[in-house]
Design brief:
By secondary structure, the chain is an alpha/beta fold. It has a single domain, classed as TIM Barrel (Alpha-Beta Barrel), CATH 3.20.20. It is 43% helix and 15% strand. The protein is built from nine helices and eight strands. Strands 3-2-1-8 form a four-stranded parallel β-sheet. Strands 4-5-6-7 form a four-stranded parallel β-sheet. Helix 5 links the parallel strand 4 and strand 5. The longest helix is centred in the N-terminal third of the chain and has 23 residues. It is globular, with a radius of gyration of 18 Å. The protein starts with a helix and ends in a 7-residue tail after the last helix.
Length: 245
């Protein structure tokens, strides 16, 4: 085992231990919680190493990289049992490159994008290229930062019925990002996402808002304490220079 693989394995054990501790503090277990290893800044060989160390879910933010990495792993027979999600902003002209590859799209931040994904998915279902609608999360700008993408909570309330009627997508939950560098603000942001999901859940079919995607390398423990079911970890997984505090 080389030095980098040893780092990945040891770091994963530390991350899992921290996850478990955070979940215990919130009275939860690891069941239903998914660690997404954000592989957008690493090469295919690093993803291979991560798979050998136990990671099974990866996140990409560029459709071409999603296709390239999945293709390389499929060619070498290493894609079985491995899932890729699409994170980050998705442009409407890149939707077709994601459908059929990403198991979950984390960042539907507007009804315009939701319609675009639904329309393309529906056409591919009708042609037999896709078996089921695309699973998506709705991105919400809970913190209200002008630099953050996504629905405002008020916009989501106004437009959610329209989104829920789109036949080419299935809404599985919500996603948000917290401002960096302030744990209290991050906690309020994640708690706000959970409260919004709880509020919406009573008006829609069971399971619609079961997933909460929030928490990254700097704040995943706080996110888990506040109810996150999907944490997106990049630097803490892959970068030996990133120190867990």
């Amino acid at each position: 085992m080389d030095e980098y693989t040893e780092f990945l394995r040891a770091r994963r054990a530390e991350i899992i231990a921290r996850m478990d501790a955070a979940l215990r503090r919130s009275g939860r277990g690891r069941e239903g919680v998914t660690l997404v290893a954000v592989s957008k800044t690493v090469d295919v060989d690093s993803v291979r190493d991560a798979i050998r160390c136990g990671y099974r879910v990866f996140g990409e933010n560029r459709p071409q990289e999603l296709a390239r990495k999945m293709g390389a792993l499929a060619e070498s027979g290493e894609l079985a049992g491995v899932r890729f999600d699409m994170i980050g902003n998705l442009q409407t002209n890149k939707v077709n490159a994601v459908l059929g590859r990403a198991e979950l799209i984390h960042s539907i931040g507007s009804t315009h994008l939701a319609r675009a994904v639904s329309d393309r998915a529906r056409r591919r279902i009708e042609s037999g290229e896709l078996a089921v609608p695309a699973d998506v999360l709705l991105e919400v700008n809970v913190s209200g930062e002008s630099t953050k993408a996504g629905y405002s909570p008020d916009e989501l309330h106004r437009e959610l019925d329209e989104v829920m009627e789109l036949s080419g997508i299935r809404v599985r939950g919500l996603m948000t990002m917290a401002p960096r560098g302030d744990e209290d603000v991050a906690r309020r942001t994640f708690a706000g996402l959970r409260a919004l999901a709880d509020e919406l859940a009573g008006s829609y079919p069971p399971g619609t808002f079961q997933e909460l995607s929030c928490g990254m390398s700097e704040d995943f423990e706080v996110a888990l304490e506040e109810g996150s079911t999907l944490i997106r970890l990049g630097r803490v997984v892959f970068d030996p220079a990133f120190a867990l505090q």
